Input
Amino acid sequence: MYAPGATGFASGYGAPVTTSLFDGKTALITGASRGIGYGIAAEFARGGASIVIMSRKPDGIAAAADQLRAEVPGAKVLGFAGNAGSDEDRQAVVDTAIKEFGSLDVLVNNTGINPTFGPLMEADLGAVRKIFDVNVVAALGFTQLAHAAWMGEHGGAVVNIASVGGLRSTGAIAAYGASKAALIRLTEELAWELGPGIRVNAVAPAVVKTKFAEALYAEREEESSAGYPMKRLGVPQDVAGLVAFLASDAASWITGETVRVDGGLLATGQLA
Output
């Protein structure tokens, strides 16, 4: 039996891309100052891509860019502070990517928010609108801009970060789950509309150990982990490797798919 902490893929902690898989390509990753987004950015940097990372807080995105350069010597990294929910900021970051690196080959829509918990009948509709605006509408907005600026003529790949909450009822995070279900459906529609030049896929993680998801596991990690066949929660690298695959030429005949990266959770019929 493979034990957590062993080396290589068998450990269950993923294996970073260390080849020139994305040499000469540019990737824009939103929500990338920490957590899953940062892990994805690091994966693309190790694969040779020029990367543009975006997040709201200037200090956070600057620190993330510096950390990436330290982790991946020679990495071409540009940090952009902006709000994914802003039409102006979306346009500005896409324009910046093209200006600085000359292309925009990969778009990873990772930005997500969840400001409300509890039953839908008690949900603040303003908060729900904000969830859908950032988690769904912004992803479409970024894709429209990437298509207009580069991908429509040159091709590319889009990967949307959804959630297993978009595939099963979630109870306490119902509004968030509904937004991720909408993102999954958007992925399918975009794949149909933008093929064959642009592939569009989604990744649906279960609970990943990040600051964003901390409320879901902080006081019961051992209990939660026991419900997964892999007997642990996810880490950002688990998601990052799959995103890199879907964006690469190795996935050249894959589009419109939502791939679960959930430690086998949904195979058990549960949603912990």
User: Anything to note?
Assistant: Helices lie at 35-46, 58-71, 87-101, 125-154, 174-194, 214-217, 221-226, 236-247. Confidence is low (pLDDT under 50) at residues 1-12. Residues 84 and 90 are 6 Å apart (CA to CA).
